[in-house]
Design goal:
29% of the residues lie in helices and 40% in strands. The protein has 200 residues and is of the alpha+beta class. Strand 6 and strand 7 form a beta hairpin. Helix 1 packs antiparallel against helix 2.
Length: 200
């Protein structure tokens, strides 16, 4: 993780702790500790989610390498555009693959009630079915591990790894997506100016 990303996520955590340390003693005397706790917990969940989703907003150039070709020219490339959807906890994306009719679109969002991310995607090729996943943000890092909502009955551990993926924000200009089985990896490079935060 970059120094800037470490600082940003560390600052959020430090800010929440500082507010708690200063305000909690005053509220305790007024019987207000119980009211503070849910707000602090909610902020500690929402701010990292907002930061990750806000970083994803913009126009990206992606390159994909499949297993066996991890250092040569990419096997595929294209463009992804990510926009805010309704509020700063949901984004939608569209994707086009170079020199191909393949198109894709999807949504990535955060559910504050469950404290988890959700993702859906649909491509113009394949069986025509969509992909639905839930994700968990790593503690203190802009890394989301997504797992399929439903697996075929009797799916092996290998199939589960193949269908699960990790989205890692490296810095404001780069993020990667790769399955747990490392069968491929996609590197996204920002093409527009750096977006500070997603706004509706």
């Amino acid at each position: 993780m970059s120094i800037r990303a470490q600082w940003r996520f560390g600052s959020v955590a430090a800010g929440v702790l500082a507010v708690t340390a200063v305000v909690a003693p005053r509220l305790a005397a007024q019987g207000g500790t119980q009211a503070l706790r849910p707000a602090v917990v909610e902020r500690s969940r929402l701010e990292p989610a907002r930061s990750v989703l806000g970083t994803l907003v913009g126009t990206w150039r992606f390159e994909i390498w499949f297993a066996g070709n991890m250092s040569g020219p990419p096997d595929a490339s294209g463009t992804r555009v990510v926009r805010v959807l309704f509020d700063d906890l949901r984004v939608e994306w569209t994707e086009e693959v170079d020199h191909s009719s393949i198109r894709g679109q999807g949504i990535i969002g955060f559910d504050p009630r469950g404290g988890v991310f959700f993702s859906s995607s649909l491509y113009s090729t394949g069986s025509g079915g969509g992909e639905f996943m839930t994700g968990v943000l790593a503690q203190g890092e802009p890394v989301i591990t997504f797992s399929p909502v439903a697996l075929a009955a009797g799916a092996s551990a290998e199939q589960q790894q193949m269908q699960s993926s990790v989205l890692s924000v490296l810095d404001p200009r780069h993020f990667t997506v790769a399955p747990l089985d490392r069968g491929w990896r996609a590197v996204y490079t920002r093409q527009d100016s750096v977006s500070r935060a997603a706004t509706p």
